[in-house]
């Protein structure tokens, strides 16, 4: 059996895994972007209230945990640890939850660094116009910061999509898990993994091109 024949014969399995991987990546990036944006917005708030300080400390703690621990360890904790504590989640759901928290931690720092690159005078000008904190973020700070952190954000997206490959270790049904099933039936590991690598290249290459374009545009 040739490589093309093997891929064609098991196309349904591989396409199912590819769809699961893409959906996992979309959920992670969308959920992580929302969570990271919320984290960054809270961390850039100015104030000395006890509640705000407590919330900031909690966010810092979560961010450091999810940025400092290996992703595989976090995935095992999400699957086995939560089950031990009484939260029964299937492999795919636990992966989505952990990956959203993981992406949120990194995106938080990316967005926060972009927001803090905007001079304090921009914030004060917004407040002088009578805008609220959220209005200053929406109309003044975020549009400028977005251009600053977008290349880094897309760069993280590329790395994060490739990181989803390890979810196969807890049976999340991604393209790697399905590839293993095909390999067991065809005994063609090199060819099948090359096809998986091609899939990730097709997904990630457009984003790599976008990063280079944005970097050139920002330098111009």
Which key features would you list for this structure?
220 residues, MetI-like fold, single chain, mainly alpha, 9 helices
Give a quick precis of the structure.
This protein is mainly α. It contains nine helices and no strands.
| Number of strand segments | 0
Shape: flat
Helix-strand sequence: HHHHHHHHH
Give the overall pLDDT as a whole number: 89
Low-confidence stretches: none
Task: Name the CATH homologous superfamily of the domain at 22-173.
Answer: MetI-like
Structural class: mainly alpha
Q: How large is the radius of gyration?
A: 21 Å
Q: Give the CATH topology of the domain at 22-173.
A: MetI-like fold
Query: What is the correct CATH architecture of the domain at 22-173?
Result: Orthogonal Bundle
Per CATH, the class of the domain at 22-173 reads Mainly Alpha
Describe this structure in words.
With 220 residues, the protein is mainly α. The chain has a domain of 152 residues: MetI-like (MetI-like fold). The protein is 83% helix and 0% strand. It is built from nine helices and no strands. α2 runs antiparallel to α7, α2 packs antiparallel against α8 and α6 packs across α7. The longest helix has 33 residues. It is flat. The termini are far apart. The mean pLDDT is 89.
